[in-house]
Write a structure and sequence with these properties.
Helices cover 42% and strands 16% of the residues. By secondary structure, it is of the alpha+beta class.
């Protein structure tokens, strides 16, 4: 079908990212929209831009976060204004001080955490980063960061990103694409994230009775576990008599959203 035959024709804009495009967002988008923002670097990428994209009901955003250039830019006076618009002036100043003594791997985690916290401050309650590595697997290339005001959108994107992850550890996705991981399987087999989830659930929900869905909704935000991970570990805990599940008679190896779980109280 030709574009001119569409009932709703696409809107194509060609302008520098700045105040004009922010005004344009407010004029033409009042329907649920998924934005993809790729600034080809970092010029024009700002908290105001991201905030305006998720302002309306049902609007979510995915943006390209050029970690390498932003990492260098945080200590470059020539692009200080750009960094301040991305992290906020106060946030950027705090981040610069935090990064001074850090090793490269610590810097990346700190910068990723800082942008996610900045997004929360403008109403992006549910940020979710996905990391891409270079072909060698030794360095990060960039991140795609999803941000939403709604936990439902966050949960859907979490499942999508989980499927695109290069590796899983005990079925827990890594939330990164690393072309080199097929050559390093042992590194990923050594981690035991489901064991950690078991300990967390027994500790955080001790003495409570709740459904599987309530456990998932209250616990998964900000963690890399997906719904299947919770069901798997709850099945394991039930088999080991560490929790009580109702109804106890169900189809084999199933754990429905409405199954009620009673966690034992903490041992004194």
């Amino acid at each position: 079908m030709a574009i001119d035959q569409l009932t709703k024709k696409p809107v194509v804009l060609n302008m520098d990212v700045g105040e004009k495009i922010l005004q344009r967002f407010g004029e033409i988008w009042a329907i649920p929209t998924l934005f993809f923002i790729d600034p080809w670097g970092y010029k024009g990428l700002s908290l105001r831009l991201i905030g305006s994209s998720i302002m309306n009901w049902g609007c979510d955003c995915i943006f390209f976060f050029n970690y390498n250039r932003i990492n260098m830019g945080l200590h470059n006076d020539a692009v200080e204004e750009h960094m301040n618009s991305l992290f906020g002036k106060e946030g950027a100043d705090t981040l610069r001080k935090q990064l001074q003594p850090m090793q490269p791997y610590q810097r990346e985690l700190t910068i990723a955490e800082a942008i996610c916290q900045s997004l929360k401050e403008i109403g992006g309650t549910y940020p979710l980063p996905f990391r891409f590595k270079h072909a060698t697997g030794k360095r990060t290339s960039h991140h795609l960061i999803f941000v939403s005001k709604n936990v439902r959108g966050y949960s859907i994107m979490k499942e999508i990103m989980a499927k695109e992850s290069s590796t899983t550890e005990q079925g827990v996705p890594c939330f990164e694409y690393d072309p080199a991981t097929i050559y390093q399987p042992l590194l990923f087999d050594l981690a035991r994230p489901l064991d950690e989830l078991e300990d967390m659930l027994l500790d955080e929900f001790a003495g409570q009775t709740m459904t599987m869905l309530q456990v998932y909704d209250q616990h998964h935000v900000g963690k890399r576990y997906i719904k299947k991970n919770y069901k798997d570990i709850l099945l394991k805990l039930e088999a080991e008599n560490k929790i009580t599940a109702s109804p106890s008679k169900r189809r084999k190896n199933t754990f429905g959203d409405d199954v009620k779980i009673t966690f034992p109280p903490k041992q004194s």
